[in-house]
Hints:
By secondary structure, the chain is mostly helical. The protein folds into 2 domains: about 35-130, no CATH class; about 130-274, no CATH class. Helices cover about 75% and strands about 5% of the residues. The protein has 10 helices and 2 strands; from the N terminus they run H-H-H-H-H-H-E-E-H-H-H-H. It has a two-stranded antiparallel ribbon. A hairpin with a 3-residue loop joins strand 1 (about 165) and strand 2. The longest helix has 28 residues, at about 200-225. The relative contact order is 0.13. Residues about 1-10 have low confidence and may be disordered.
Amino acid sequence: MGDWTPRELRFSNLGLRLISSAILIPLGLAAVWSGGWGLAVACALTAGVMAWEWGHISGFTRPFLLVVFAALTCLSLPLGMPAVSIGVLIAGAIFAALVAKGAWNHRGSAIFGLLYVTALPASLWLLREGPWDGRSAALYFMSFVWASDAAAYFTGRGLGGPRLLPKESPNKTWSGAIGAVFACIVCGTAAADIQRVPFIGWILAGIAISVVAQVGDLFESGLKRRFRVKDSGTILPGHGGVMDRVDGLGAVAFISVLAFHIAPNLPDVLGLQS
């Protein structure tokens, strides 16, 4: 029940991961800091690459179609007209269903793929531009997800131990999952101190963020396993594809936007009121 990776290979791609992260993290922070159209363009590029990756791993014959509609949906967000964004996405889903060949499961895969690759980056834009302190919320949550990912990697690879879900993602361990949660508890404690609010709210938020990020990662791993691929792409050395990097953050952004709208007092609890 130990980690499947041989001990001598567990950190073999660490250098590539660090180099990629050193490039991606500043770009992500700059895009979120600027917000507005700058972030929308970054989200559109991300959605476009993810759509291309989805088209190839799922066997969709016209991946460029997914790219166009995913990118256009994200670019329409700053217009402040939800009906336009939803209309573009629905139109893309219809076209994808019509173009997809084969049985209905292929059409469903195309529709789901477009919704999935668009929702993840679009949710980050909605979190950043929401009726709360969106810049702080997005930056905090991004840092939590990165801390969770790093802790899971180093704890899981360092300690090994029983696998978390061997059928979905054989290299993830319980030690990594627990280490990720503890890292986010530390981040939550720091955030509460910075925001000068009671610790319990941010600690619970940290736990929730780590769990959601890991579930998002496992969900994407399950999708790749369905199509029998290891990585969604090769564009990011040491990480795989763009989908492999934004699955957790996109899931956190999506759930956070829902939570902030369902519980409007939640930003106040975290000191993130506008």
